[in-house]
Protein: Iron complex transport system substrate-binding protein
Amino acid sequence: MRGRWTAVLVTVVLGLTACGAEVRPGGDTGPAPVTVENCGHAITYPLPQRAVAYDMSSTEKMFALGLAGRMRGIVMPRTAEPAVARSPYVADYRSVETLSTDVLSFETVVGAQADWVLAGWNSGFSEARGITPAKLDGVGIRSYQHTESCFNYGDRPVKVPPLEALYTDLRQIGQIFHVPDRAEALVADLQARAVALRANAPAGEPARVFVYDSGTDQPFTSGNQAAPDTIVSLAGGRNIAGNLDARWTTIGWEPVVRAQPEVIAVVDYGDRPVADKIAFLKSFPPLADSPAVRENRFHVLDYGEAVSGPRNLDAAEKLAGYLRSLGR
Structure:
């Protein structure tokens, strides 16, 4: 009889191990921790139980993977609120508690008793504001930084093209939350759409596109390490700031004027109404002779589509359609 029960126990243990479960002292079981490389560091993650995401980039990566029900809450700055209302994930947003409408803070995360935080370096995590992966790790809270933002992180920055960075994040978040099949299916769909866009790219010289986020004295735009550079490229255009090895960055007006943009893609979020941004660009004398202003070629890029996330392909497809409508 004893041999029979021993055999049953061995079978159960083997079955749990085969399913990725870990048998711990005392007989407790649960998913085995997962180790992934993030910003050049191998980090081991137990399955998060109280996840917090910052801003739309983090939040919509979680939602796209079907993880809304496994989140403790989100931190969403007020400037993003209009874009949240337009998001296809608005029902998910409503189902998860908003912990703060300010920037990400150490106090908010600790107060929420979070065990895992998803954000970007200098777009959430910040040395100056006292919320870093190292500080959170010191109180038992794991972190994951957007791969795109590893370009600005630490002494040995990790440089990954924005689209590959997005795929990496989706796959690794899928591993951490033990939903790798969902992640692979989502990435496969995004990859297929990117291939289709490239296959249908117009012949000839790409349209010159200026990505305008904000700024009057100096414009804030996207270099080649942020999602809009890939969005413009997939759409069949050329980002006029694509020669800059930077993420979101401030430049002077002189290179914009010299580039003579044919299209201006204006990022729409709550810092200033998009109509006011376009009105400024139309009235700005140095740009008056640019093809974009002369021909009234302004394309609105939704904030939720412009930051690294699953809707980057939506943005590229819309911009591609706009460029085609111009005969480009």
Observations:
- The longest strand covers residues 116-121.
- The two ends are 79 Å apart (CA to CA).
- Residues 180-199 form the longest helix (20 residues).
- Residues 305 and 314 are 7 Å apart (CA to CA).
